[in-house]
Design a protein that fits this description.
single chain, mainly alpha, rod-shaped
């Protein structure tokens, strides 16, 4: 897809250069040609074409946030399910 975009921008750039160097053309006309005939349509097409990717990324982020919230809610309040590794023996008193 990007190869087509690069090719189209090259063609429009050459059209703009031809208009700027023409005896009847102007630099302002070349800039307007490049913007309205090349850059703006390409940006619009790339934005519309990237919509499914952005939707999948948003859904994946929401799913990750939901699973993190569910995991945090299911975790014990002390933060672990294992006994402490360095326990201290109780003090024994002889009577």
């Amino acid at each position: 897809m990007y190869l087509v975009v690069i090719g189209w921008l090259y063609v429009v750039l050459m059209m703009a250069v031809a208009e700027a160097l023409s005896t009847q053309g102007s630099v302002l006309g070349a800039v307007i040609t490049f913007l309205f005939y090349g850059l703006l349509p390409v940006v619009l097409i790339i934005y519309i074409g990237g919509t499914p990717h952005r939707r999948r990324a948003r859904q994946a982020a929401e799913a990750a946030a939901a699973s993190a919230t569910a995991a945090a809610a299911a975790a014990p309040p002390h933060g672990g399910g294992h006994a402490a590794g360095d326990t201290v023996a109780a003090e024994r008193k002889e009577a």
